[in-house]
Write a structure and sequence with these properties.
The complex is a heterodimer of chains A (about 120) and B (about 110). Chain A contains no helices and 11 strands. With about 120 residues, chain A is mainly beta. In chain A, strands 2, 4, 5, 6, 9, 10 and 11 form a 7-stranded mixed sheet that branches. Chain A has a 4-stranded antiparallel sheet with strand order 1-3-8-7, with no helix packed on it. The radius of gyration of chain A is 13 Å and the shape is globular. The mean pLDDT of chain A is about 95. In chain B, strand 5 and strand 6 form a beta hairpin. Chain B starts with a strand and ends with a strand. Classes of the chains: A mainly beta (about 120), B mainly beta (about 110). Chains A and B meet through strand 4 and strand 5 of A and strand 5 and strand 6 of B.
Chain lengths: ~120, ~110
Amino acid sequence: EAQVTQNPRYLITVTGKKLTVTCSQNMNHEYMSWYRQDPGLGLRQIYYSMNVEVTDKGDVPEGYKVSRKEKRNFPLILESPSPNQTSLYFCASRRTGGYSNQPQHFGDGTRLSIL
Amino acid sequence: AQSVTQPDIHITVSEGASLELRCNYSYGATPYLFWYVQSPGQGLQLLLKYFSGDTLVQGIKGFEAEFKRSQSSFNLRKPSVHWSDAAEYFCAVGARVGSYIPTFGRGTSLIVHP
């Protein structure tokens, strides 16, 4: 089954404790991205990756890092989480990076609470 | 750069009633257009998309959307709403040239009364 898998689904942690949210897709997609979803603000893109070893900032990259060492994986790293990063996070992928006519496939989300 | 507006934050309808969710975009040409649905606790799922051709697009779950160039709109419709349609709906726009990054609207929350 084609899917985007995020882990963990829920996490409560404290300010300053490094955390990583993993994202993996099994569709051999080139393009992957991370979004955060906040009430009233919709989806805002954090980072995206057009292919392996190619990443770039989205609209709200501050406080986040990503890496793309393999095609299937695109982890989101919070080196020093702060309460304003409490949010619902989504990973998404699409077949190729260079064509915005392709829909994205989304994971089920990770709800992070930073105390 | 493209932008997209969903004017309604919440829409409430009765089960069995018709539904129209509004989406307006700003772009210098005809963009790629998408509607996604997000059920509680889940990720976004594609309902339908428009690239070119017939301006009335059929999607999954009985939804359709009509592209109107003159109004820069891509409204989502369903003739008879079911309680299971209660969800968050997002309109998204992709540029044909330039940016490869789609832009999402802020979403419309659909509430269905029995």
